[in-house]
Amino acid sequence: MTGLAPDLSRSAYESPDIVALYARPDGLQKPEQTLLAQLAPSLGTIDMLDIGVGGGRTTRHFAPLVRTYLGIDYSAAMIEHCRQEFPSFRFAVADARRLEFAADESYDFVLFSYNGIDHLDRHERLTALNEMRRVLRPGGLMVFSSHNANYLPAITDRFRFRVHAGLRETLRSFKWSCVFWAKNGLLQYRMPLAAGRVHDGTHSFRSSALYYVRPDVGVAELRRLGMVDIACAGNESHDFVPGDDPRLPRDSNPWIYYMSRKPEQA
Ligand SMILES: C[S@@+](CC[C@H](N)C(=O)[O-])C[C@H]1O[C@@H](n2cnc3c(N)ncnc32)[C@H](O)[C@@H]1O
């Protein structure tokens, strides 16, 4: 018994095909490139916790530069892959909702990249965010990304039934449209959505629903957590803007990077 709510996505992340998907040596996303450049002068003094490390996409870029590095993932298969691929760095199987291995205030930088946090429902997400905050030193940096609720019209459009020139493609469209609406029956009545879970077809619907949140609502979540210096960047942008930027509530990038700090004084 772990005491944690079941997460169907976890079994998907143990599958060899999904491990292989995240094991591809992809580069950093644009906001991550900005982050790496901003942190560059101090990286050598930083203790970093890389949560939901997957196949080690971020390990490749950050681990050689920071003072200490630990990559964790709740998928044992992902961690096994990382250990083989990056034998000189430390990895552990662990869940973001229970960072029991880490003392309070033991990291300078906690990263949960590529929307891994969205597999958790709202309650569990807050548990994970609280844990991430707990293990950060005062002044430490928390960065994660999360699906943008403003992007949902594009998702529903993707699953709209369309007649194509070929029968095979038309049948395919019919099948995925049926699956999407069977799983998201009430979605059209919930939109526009401020925050909530949606089955968006990730991993061909093998994952559980993902949490989508409007950027200003995500910022408010961080404020309630007591985080400061909140800034956001759409995944297609190098530029972070302050959390109170008036354009944020309408930002329609597929996902948003949230950067924030734990206050120096408790
Ligand atoms: C979309 S993948 C991203 C992998 C990697 N960060 C990257 O950017 O390529 C999300 C990762 O988060 C992990 N994950 C999801 N929920 C987690 C949790 N509660 N605790 C630890 N890892 C989790 C998954 O196993 C998966 O490897």
Report on this structure.
This protein is an alpha/beta fold. It folds into 2 domains: 9-147 and 214-261, Rossmann fold; 151-205, no CATH class. It has helices spanning 9-14, 16-22, 30-39, 59-62, 76-85, 122-135, 152-158, 167-183, 187-190, 215-224; strands at 47-51, 68-73, 90-93, 107-112, 136-148, 195-198, 210-213, 228-234, 241-242, 255-261. Strands 1, 2, 3, 4, 5, 6, 7, 8, 9 and 10 form a 10-stranded mixed β-sheet that branches. The longest helix is centred in the middle third of the chain and has 17 residues, at 167-183. The model has no long low-confidence stretch (mean pLDDT 94). The chain binds S-adenosylmethionine. The site of S-adenosylmethionine (SAM) has 21 residues, from loops.
Annotation keywords:
Rossmann fold, 2 domains, binds S-adenosylmethionine, ten-stranded mixed sheet, 33% helix
Note the overall shape.
globular
Q: How much is the average pLDDT?
A: 94
Can you write the helix and strand succession as a string?
HHHEHEHEEHEHHHEEHEEE
Distance between the termini: 34 Å
CATH-assigned fold name of the largest domain: Rossmann fold
- Percentage of residues in strands: 15-25%
> Largest beta sheet, briefly?
10 strands, mixed
Highest-level CATH class of the largest domain: Alpha Beta
Helix content: 25-40%
Bound compounds, please?
S-adenosylmethionine
Radius of gyration: 19 Å
CATH architecture of the largest domain: 3-Layer(aba) Sandwich
